[in-house]
Design brief:
Layout: E1 4-10, H1 15-27, E2 32-36, H2 42-45, E3 50-53, H3 59-68, E4 69-76, H4 82-87, H5 89-114, E5 118-125, H6 134-140, E6 142-143, H7 154-171, E7 185-192, E8 194-196, H8 209-219, E9 223-225, E10 235-237, H9 238-250, E11 260-262, H10 270-280, E12 286-288, H11 292-299, E13 304-305, H12 308-314, H13 322-337
Parallel strand pairs: 1-2, 1-4, 2-3, 4-5, 5-7, 6-13, 7-11, 8-10, 9-12
Helix pairs in contact: 1-9, 3-5, 5-7, 8-10
Bound molecules: serine.
Serine binds near residues 81, 125, 205, 206 and 207.
Length: about 350
Amino acid sequence: MIRKPVVLITGAGGEIGHGLIAHLAEAGTQPVVTLDVNPLEPALASKVQREFTGSIMDKSLLERVLSEFEVDTVYHLAALLSTRSEFTPVTAHQVNVEGTLNLLEFSQREAESHGRPVTFLYPSSIAAYGLPSLEAKRQAGRVREDDYNTPSTMYGCNKLYCEQLGRYYAKFYKQLAADTQSGRVDFRSVRFPGLISALTVPSGGTSDYAPEMIHAAAKGEPYACFVRPDTRIPFMAMPDGVAALLRLAAAPKAALTRTAYNLAAFNPSAEEVRQEVVQAFPHADITWHNDLKRQGIVDSWPEDVDDSAARRDWGFAPAYDFTKAFRDYLIPTIGSRYGK
Ligand code: SER
């Protein structure tokens, strides 16, 4: 065999990539190849077989990956998050939509070339929802996948559309061609809540107030929270996010009834996050400084989501509730991050 079967991770140096690479490297079942616009940190780079530094917009780079590796699984993590995307919506579209199209097309070519379907994991987001008002948000409670699909952000529009693009590749790609072309890309997507990692701080997101609050407290720095204390959206501890992607990737295809699944773990208000942070770091200095515009975005996201389809179809079961996320994951891990 000339080319080696591998897992490809785009945006590998980001928040999710950190945890995912650690797990895949430890499992050791398939070598990992990465693509990121920035070089990986040395500790991460040492865990992967090959690192490509470049953009998902660079088709000739994707051709090089295709020519060298047999990719069986793609974790397409590269994206511009919601706050950043509002400042540069056209770039967001290029990276988030055209970049995803490039990876879907890449996966189709891979599958055609090695003759097996490529499993394509795509992190979508609660940003795919758009609740019209705070009142509607409160009344809606646990939102189901097919309701309120009217996002108000560029990022949310991009994510929702790419879910549909993935479904198209999986089920209808070139449906009028003489030979069936669809099904070669086995597209599987989760709508992540806000993710909280002990190892990295997100950049450019709008759910970032929770992780920023926690990391600032751990570092002993003051933090002014940009949303109101009563703001409520779902969050998840990063290990559960990574576990969800791995579990969905391993699920038998016949068990899957959807291509995009909600995931829920806990949904504290910003004030409840503050209280938990203060308990963990008694010297935490957290104040409220409401940014009305970013608040508007968070207010359009559901306060909770119905994840019964993920639980039923592929056994999604988060290990961390709110208290456990702090007690067993964030507090023990974050201390070493800042050398405390
Ligand atoms: N956490 C993301 C953001 O805030 C939403 O997926 O942009």
